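Handout, section 4.2: multi-component inputs.
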Amino acid sequence: MGAEDAGRPAPGDAGAGEAAVAVLLGAGALAWRVADRVTAPARWLVGGIARPIAGALVGPVAAGPTAAQGRALRAEWAVLLARTAGHVAREVVAVVLPALDLTALVLKHVDLDRIAAALDLDAAVARVDLDAAVARVDLDAAVARVDLDAAVARVDIGAIVDSVDLDGIVARIALDAIVDRIDVDAIVARVDLGAIVDRVDLDGIVARVDLDAAVARVDIGAIVDRIDLDAVAARIDIEAIAARLDLDRLAAGLDVTAVVDRVDLDAVAARIDADRVVARVDLDAVVARLDLVGIAQSVIDAIDLPEIVRESTGALSSDAVRAVRTESRRADDRVAGLFDRLLRRNPYPDGPPAGAPALP
Amino acid sequence: MTAADRPAGIVTRVLAALIDGVVVAALTGAVFGAVVAGMFVVNPVSFRWPHGLLAEASLVTVGVAVGYLTVGWAIAGRTVGGAVLGVRVVANGGARLGWTRSACRAVLCVLVPLGLLWVAVSARRRSVQDLVVRSTVLYDARKVPAPRAPAAR
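Output:
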């Protein structure tokens, strides 16, 4: 970059427009000065030589009508001379300007700072039709020439972000209106959910989740009420699920006693159509497979049926029965004693048992 | 041997046999009534009260008696008569008699009822049937419980 360019604003800078205006004004001032100098001889002829001669010739008659005519003629000539000077100046400028280094002349002779300081840039800018100017700019081409990567690389994104009042920005955003204008369906349709899910560390996420607290806030009843269980059940491949289950392991971990304790067996039994169940049972086959004799024997052994019968015969325990038993046993002993005497034998060869009647 | 474990005498066992006879008669009557009722239901128009069925009735009576005695002795060691008189039938060792020996003893008791009288002659109070199947009839060890007192109000 040269020394001259060092003082100039960089392209795209905010002061570029002002500098351009200053240069144009400077160039206009230089052209004015050049034209003034070029037309100076003509004006000298008109003002310095011709004026005294005309005054000497026409002075005596200046007070009369002739003087008035003379003044009118003078005015016409002045106009004619001005036109002539203008034509001459234009021709001279057209010849001289191409040969001049205007930039060098402006830099050498024009105090651009002063000019710029004197300029009413606001008024100038106000007169500019910015919309028309922007409309003429080929923004695409301009952007295409910009090395956005390099520009972005020089940007301190962190500092920018730190300086941004995100809360304030967000507070001013009408999120509801934005969301209403978003075609969420179209966005979701373009999202590769499979790829996203593959990149998610579900284990890590789930490990950080307080599932107990989350579940405690869930209104299970409301969720269940909204579920079309029939439709859900219709979509479930029960056979596939059952094929994947290790029923033995599940059963081993099941507290069957606790489960049975929670079941209202009376209500369940009340809902069972026992007649239909029995009608479907092949009782003949069941009976044919049973070891009825063995079962009966094991039942008799287990329940001590003799004891039960003896207990049941307690119903017969009345004074009459006890009297009959007592009298019959006494009669047994009398008859036995009678036969012992007839047969001359010892009724107690092994000694009298306890409770046996005494011998007569 | 306690008093309750003593063999039952002739009077007690005859009384028990008489009660069992009444039970067998009742059971036989029930069977006979059921058969007659069945005949009436099957053909009520031509139904006539059966006559001249002594042989059949005797056979049914024997069968009912044998079955009744066998079941009672094999399962509980006693029949209704034994329960009333407080006696029970056991094997010589004191164990339950078993189905086979109970059936044999029942057949002998029905066909040779007079064998029971040998109890009076036997020093160990055993009948002919007891000698054949090696069984014993003992007084029941359980005492007859007293009647329950009425519940307090």
